[in-house]
Design goal:
homotrimer, alpha/beta, TIM Barrel, 4-stranded parallel beta sheet, globular, EC 5.3.1.12 (chains A, B, C), Uronate isomerase (chains A, B, C)
Amino acid sequence: MSPPSAPLRPHPDRLLPTDPAVRALARRLYASVRALPILSPHGHVDPRLLVDDAAFPDPATLLVTPDHYITRLLHASGVTLAELGVGQGPLTERQARAAWRRLCEHWQVFRGTPVRYWLESELAEIFGVTERPDSANADRLYDRIAERLAEGAFRPRALFDRFGIEVLATTDDPCDDLAAHRALAADPAFRGRVVPTFRPDRYLEPAEAGWAAAVARLGEAADEDTTTYPGYLRALESRRRYFVAHGATSADHSHPDVRTDPLDPATAARIHATALAGTATAAECTAFRRHMLLEMARMSCEDGLVMTLHPGIRRNHHTPTLHRFGPDTGHDIPVRVEFTDALRPLLERYGTAPGFQLILFTVDESVLSREIAPLAGFYPSVFAGAPWWFLDAPDAIRRARRAVTETAGFTRTSGFVDDTRAFCSVPARHDMSRRLDCGLLAELVAEHRLDEDEAFATARDLVDAIPRKAFKL
Amino acid sequence: MSPPSAPLRPHPDRLLPTDPAVRALARRLYASVRALPILSPHGHVDPRLLVDDAAFPDPATLLVTPDHYITRLLHASGVTLAELGVGQGPLTERQARAAWRRLCEHWQVFRGTPVRYWLESELAEIFGVTERPDSANADRLYDRIAERLAEGAFRPRALFDRFGIEVLATTDDPCDDLAAHRALAADPAFRGRVVPTFRPDRYLEPAEAGWAAAVARLGEAADEDTTTYPGYLRALESRRRYFVAHGATSADHSHPDVRTDPLDPATAARIHATALAGTATAAECTAFRRHMLLEMARMSCEDGLVMTLHPGIRRNHHTPTLHRFGPDTGHDIPVRVEFTDALRPLLERYGTAPGFQLILFTVDESVLSREIAPLAGFYPSVFAGAPWWFLDAPDAIRRARRAVTETAGFTRTSGFVDDTRAFCSVPARHDMSRRLDCGLLAELVAEHRLDEDEAFATARDLVDAIPRKAFKL
Amino acid sequence: MSPPSAPLRPHPDRLLPTDPAVRALARRLYASVRALPILSPHGHVDPRLLVDDAAFPDPATLLVTPDHYITRLLHASGVTLAELGVGQGPLTERQARAAWRRLCEHWQVFRGTPVRYWLESELAEIFGVTERPDSANADRLYDRIAERLAEGAFRPRALFDRFGIEVLATTDDPCDDLAAHRALAADPAFRGRVVPTFRPDRYLEPAEAGWAAAVARLGEAADEDTTTYPGYLRALESRRRYFVAHGATSADHSHPDVRTDPLDPATAARIHATALAGTATAAECTAFRRHMLLEMARMSCEDGLVMTLHPGIRRNHHTPTLHRFGPDTGHDIPVRVEFTDALRPLLERYGTAPGFQLILFTVDESVLSREIAPLAGFYPSVFAGAPWWFLDAPDAIRRARRAVTETAGFTRTSGFVDDTRAFCSVPARHDMSRRLDCGLLAELVAEHRLDEDEAFATARDLVDAIPRKAFKL
């Protein structure tokens, strides 16, 4: 007989400062914002989830297989992606159970990571799990969660309400007809606000395979002739307007760098044509993308979509894994990034344009105090984005706040962004952020750098007024 | 009726560690250095202020308009630089009052920033303000400060004494006749020591507009023929000697990078000539500047001026603002910087030269542990400069000490440098530094990494022996 | 009469967290791992020390002269390397005493550095010194230590046992016959495990002076014709197998960068030939080295040696010092480094190869959260190395754990590596690491991010299972 499993019980004071006096204030601050509605202005939840409102299929498909935060560390620990059900379409019960078992058996590799923190919160607070996962209780936990998933209270819409989500932004292809968003908006039984986000990366990178086909699709979606450069621009403008009409408030961009060097229209048109013909050089393709990022800023000035940048990721680092299991499988690896010079052409033109807003995210911490905070501390258009991806974790979030606040204060930041495709982790992530911000504010009060009334006001602003302003919610 | 304003009362323990036992020691350490004289070996206060000793015109002109730390975050918050009186010459009472009101109305955007910390100290400790600025009390505070400014006790010399400043270094153009410094030195009624700093940037950058005119002016000032390269060198040497004769102890340099690649004299002479003729290429201009930085080191070996480097800033990032409001208006943005390879030619030649001293400042934190501390930990000439600009703030200062000390200890650092043009912020800044250093030392004692007697000795050295040595005061 | 010297008494709680509740747990965690055997899988102790087991000559030769951590900060403080006995062969008693005196006189420059911490531990715990070194007690301390060194209990083997070292890895030239390792393995009176490490840098860098001679030596050692590229490869493979047969578990590489771009065999062979002929260009030499680093990975897949990378150091920064005093004299200075793109060719090929292990060390902290942790968090072959060199100090170690753990957890790290040539500092360094890890774990428990049983298990794994796995001990 195996030993009894350890208990799982997330502590009410978790992540708060350890000094008793500071913790007491942090606790009061946290209590004042804990239950405020969740604004999730950037993420990757599929909106059809809420349209269909079907029961989630099984614990692994819900919590393990699609979450690259989980699968990558299991992969590093010797579990194959195949065992985790990655890239295999719908899982059989046997496959799902096996994938779930891998997670439970390797629970200890997540010690000290935010995945552990999020999962613990989800298991305990959403599913009522009271034992720490291990190899002995894996099947029992699977059964318990599977049972719950069959209940009506665990359907997507019920969870959406229970999570207290006020706004949820999805990330969408410019050609998407946004039928899911329309269905939700038209459904009187659904009271949440689910808005699309315009994500045109693939249409701006002529060097990527499939660009010409994408541009053709774009032409169809917008009813424009995208074989010409002006038509291509009009099509992008048209699709952006379509997104705005369906509630979008932002456009997201994730390229290797954020250079924004202008081309004259004739050169842009020439590259557009050669790229469609498949004869553009790599340098021309890069120049075109950099020019188009600037064009996106121009369009943002016109249609009001907040521009958000998520640069500096080398996607699909391990080609054999890409070929076997597809993209978003845990090996997008950060590289150094530069903002000051790269964004200068854009900011020279639009940095003080009325209504223009630009949110800068980074996975390269070294730019926070050096570039992002100084830019957000001068340009009325620039906001420092919340820590992203490898940095969306307690210690990194603390470092980021410390790195940004002294130059840009609190009001020039974006508020928390969960950026997740794991729907059930949304509340745990926002809750983590609230705890950390309240802890930091309590420390500022304890060091007599801020008065208590200001800490309470700031704690609330950080989950309410600040993200509303940054993302125009 | 508006609600009563919040009180403003800087806490005696502000910035000290929150752990009660550690704070108790930090408090004792701080008490031992709190009242020591201020050595300000690098800054931007105008020496004529002390020569004229006239009353400061008004609160905005004193505290708001010229301080780019304040105007930039207000600008980012939607206040125009015009509203703040930037770039408009002397302000009318109406303009000054309006600018002041903008600051008070936006007080909350400074939460968590050092500007808030400095201003709070200044308002409370210098002007006796007891209310936190807000839109309701803005005019009342303006009147109160304006009243004080009219009093003799608030004239520059009285404040200089009250602040306990022993040495104040200014930053000066090589062609400056240093009349203000001479006047102060000759005035028996003024007992402070105000020394100039040689800042030759514009004379070393042939790519900058106005270089030829500057070189001509330099020739006049030095009575040398600067149309020849040897004459140009002699003129620089001569002006440096002039500065030394007027009390200067350091020469400051702020270029985009710190490369110091030598040119042979014939090449240097050729570029000097073509640059004067306006036909030098951008690459030649850069090569010339890098060569001249090495020449500056040679001259420092000869005349003893400490060489200080402040690289890595992209000046006037937003050209429209530069054109409308002038330089130093809040949009100088840092870029990545490199020291190890860039300084190698200089250090190969002069790194162990007797008497040569080189202080390295950075706005790129990533070089602190990687490059600056290792260089300062080997070369007897190299000192790690205090955190500068966007980093002259409590958390950044703590990070910098932690990043530098483990490799270079305390004795290879520069001591605190306020680098400010805001005269009234000088004591608040030095006080902040003393509190932070005492906090760190108390933490080292609490972790049993340092004995208490050593902490007391180090606290004193950091405000006395260490800056005296680094800057040859 | 000089004042009495201060006492020297390392505190039992040193480096543990200062919050009393957190410290209490940290103390219990530390007590559970304090006495576990030392695994030292990478370092620079000379194995002949243990073969000869002769008394150490004198305190300076043991503790000062060969330790570039000590000599560099003394050098920066104005002591010449000559005074410290560097590069002068065996020291006379007079020279040794003078060098020792310099250390004691400058004890205060080490405040806040790990050197101070290590030396304090060594002096107190190994030699029973009870006074803090100063100029008054320098000779007395010298005599006391010298006396001890003459005792049998202070011979290398006795210390090896007393230190509780289970495994000690040395760093060795590929042509070394490993006679010392064989002698130790064959000696029934010596029960420790001393294993060699394959360090082929000089054989892979055709641009370095002496490469051709080294390649010829390699041919002799391996009995292969290294004038041909295939023979050169075979010779390297053969010497690696020889090292494996003598207990080696890893191969170490330290080049300016870690690019691993493949050449086709014909190109590699051509550069090999031209480099031997002395006609290869600098670019060809670099290309060859980058190709060979990839070849080293291939060989690791075949012979199982763990590959460890220590890049990003500009060696012998100050050429005059190199010429006068030799290498490893304190002026190897870090530069920026890049892993994500540089290692991609290697990881595309071997990143998921069974048994392949790659440990990444850095002196550029900015890559920890950005590149190393993400790579170690996906690739089963990649481990994040312990903080190295300028970063092997309490605050830097804490920063590194915080930067790596949230992405890669604890299990994807290397465990502590002392990397020292200072034999007597081995226990102090490992003890420091254990204290810091226990402190961090206690903090995670205090913030309710980890349960207490997990903290105890992790504390033990970090000094036992984790390094055993990473280095295949």
